[in-house]
Specification:
Elements: E1 2-3, E2 8-10, E3 37-43, E4 46-52, E5 68-75, E6 83-91, E7 98-103, E8 111-118, E9 121-122, E10 126-129, E11 141-146, H1 157-162, E12 169-172, H2 198-209, H3 212-220, E13 223-225, H4 248-265, E14 283-287, E15 291-295, E16 311-312, H5 328-340, E17 345-349, E18 367-368, H6 376-388, E19 394-398, E20 404-409, E21 421-425, H7 439-448, E22 452-456, E23 459-466, E24 470-478, E25 488-497, E26 500-505
Parallel strand pairs: 1-6, 11-12, 12-13, 15-17, 17-19, 19-21
Antiparallel strand pairs: 2-7, 3-4, 4-7, 5-6, 5-8, 8-9, 8-10, 11-23, 14-15, 16-18, 20-21, 20-22, 23-24, 24-25, 25-26
Helix pairs in contact: 2-4
Length: 506
């Protein structure tokens, strides 16, 4: 057993709120950990462990502005009889009493249990799996990905089902919270008005994390997260608000608040600690040689949506080489990673749909300007790179649009040509409320776009099984979210054979 071996803890004494005093005797009640626990960004020898001291997430009574010691333990067993590492972090008021512990020095490719202790109370127990060594080729990875969980518009029933699956990893692709003011007569109600201050964003994250099903899914296995727009403000594009009368300086102040609160509530490494309105979130994740993940940020560096946003035919702006979704630095980073990869599956975990989907029936065309078709030159550059460099088995994971899709992606002008990649788009957990199969629209979409192999507008998530020979995506749905108890339905399953791009329905 190593006490604190290989662990990096923060904040340090030098970053405590001025005047904050370490209080080893501060009493927090029977459950100091009202937001649960989370593990994230697993590595071959460790992971980030997260919690936040907040006994009652829905109370207006703040935790006293004192620094509170928090013990952490990592064990081989759920009873903590074989503790492998332990240490003490400090929860400080300037970080909303959030704790991030970067544990290292563990064995690759095995499960561990973890928990936190403070003020005489213990957190729930969470699990995480360390990743295989970079050169290892495992025979299976089980993972899920999700997106878009509007607290007011539905229950997080899908997470209840997800937490019962046998998963090694979960990706969240954005819209973890929504920024809007509370509304009456919905399933649940946001606290307060539209969020802008750091305290507003902290309160909104706490309200979401008070959900028992979300907490259970976080405790199940490690998560890898990235944001979309609602973690900050709807349809934001770089420094640009969707509203024309917003002061740019105030907009960036608000972005700084949102980024800080996001970091405080996610199991992210210190490398992602924001600096004002900037936060480096695109990063790698690997599962040995089986799968290499590039986690992208398609909001912070993008150009403004072209053609006035919305669904539009192509315009000179959407076809301009200067129009960027990723920004030059992130695109260069992505190309270098893909070119150097020796993994069987190369995965982009990102936010908005890459498929060039015509949304209008008949001869006229309309494409979403908020998605990759609004940034067509860069989209084609990436698909062409997959083709030219013979990238092994590109897979694109996408969220954002509250509906399920399976798209075969081809480079060039013919979207229905031989694909070079496959895109799996996940619906929302609860956003837009109760969904439907929407079979009539699904047929219209597929008639207009033969490369679209599946469309569905129910709520849920996608669970995947990846092996060296195939990738299988199961579209897991719940038929309603306005009341509890919706059963899980596997609405469709699609497979991609290694070495042969394009999805086949199972």
């Amino acid at each position: 057993m190593a006490a604190g071996f290989g662990a990096v803890l923060w904040p340090t004494l030098s970053t405590w709120t001025e005047g904050a005093v370490l209080n080893r005797n501060y009493r927090l009640g029977p459950n100091p950990f009202g937001l649960g626990v989370a593990a994230g960004d697993p590595q071959p020898t460790g992971a980030v462990l997260w919690t936040r001291i907040l006994p009652d997430p829905l109370s207006d009574e703040p935790v006293e502005p004192v620094a509170i010691p928090v013990q952490w333990e990592v064990s081989h067993d759920e009873k903590f009889s074989k503790i492998m590492q332990k240490g003490t972090a400090v929860a400080t008021p300037d970080m909303a009493h959030a704790v991030h512990v970067e544990v290292s020095g563990l064995d690759p490719d095995r499960w561990y249990f973890y928990r936190f202790l403070a003020s005489g109370g213990a957190s729930r127990t969470g699990r995480f799996r360390t990743m295989p060594r970079p050169e290892a080729l495992n025979n299976r990875l089980r993972m899920a990905f999700a997106s878009c969980q509007h607290f007011e518009q539905g229950l997080f029933t899908a997470y209840d089902h997800m937490s019962k699956e046998d998963l090694d990893l979960i990706f969240h692709l954005g819209d973890y919270i929504y920024e809007y003011k509370g509304k009456d007569r919905l399933v649940r109600k946001h606290r307060g008005n539209e969020i802008e201050s750091i305290e507003d964003y902290r309160q909104r994250h706490a309200q979401y994390k008070s959900d028992e099903f979300l907490q259970a899914a976080h405790a199940l296995c490690p998560w890898i997260v990235t944001w979309d727009d609602h973690e900050f403000d709807n349809n934001c594009a770089g420094y640009i608000s969707e509203q024309k009368d917003v002061d740019p300086a105030k907009f960036l102040d608000r972005r700084a608040n949102s980024y800080r609160a996001y970091y405080e509530h996610m199991p992210l490494p210190r490398a992602c600690l924001p600096e004002g309105p900037h936060m480096a979130l695109y990063r790698p994740a690997t599962f040995g040689r089986l799968a290499d993940f590039s986690v992208l940020d398609t909001r912070q560096y993008r150009s403004d949506q072209p053609c006035g946003d919305g669904n539009k035919p192509p315009c000179p702006e959407s076809l301009s080489p200067s129009q960027t979704m990723l920004g030059p630095a992130q695109e260069k980073w992505l190309a270098q990673r893909l070119k150097a990869s020796s993994s069987i599956w190369n995965v982009l975990a990102q936010q908005v749909m890459m498929g060039h989907v015509d949304r209008k029936a008949g001869e006229e065309v309309a494409y979403s300007m908020d998605q990759w078709p609004g940034y067509e030159v860069e989209r084609q550059r990436i698909l062409g790179f997959f083709d030219r460099e013979k990238i092994s088995n590109p897979i694109v994971l996408t969220g954002d649009i509250h509906s399920n899709w399976v798209n075969n992606l081809a480079p060039g002008q013919d979207d229905n040509a031989q694909p070079v990649a496959t895109e799996f788009v996940v619906t929302s957990i609860s956003s837009s409320g109760n969904g439907s199969q929407n079979l009539k629209y699904a047929q219209t979409v597929q008639d207009e776009n033969p490369f679209v192999k599946f469309y569905n507008a129910e709520r849920g998530y996608v669970s995947c099984e990846i092996t060296p020979k195939s990738w299988t995506s199961n579209y897991q749905v719940v038929e309603y979210v306005d009341k509890p108890g919706a059963p899980l339905v596997t609405r469709a399953s699609f497979a991609v054979e290694s070495g042969k791009a394009g999805a086949q329905k199972m």
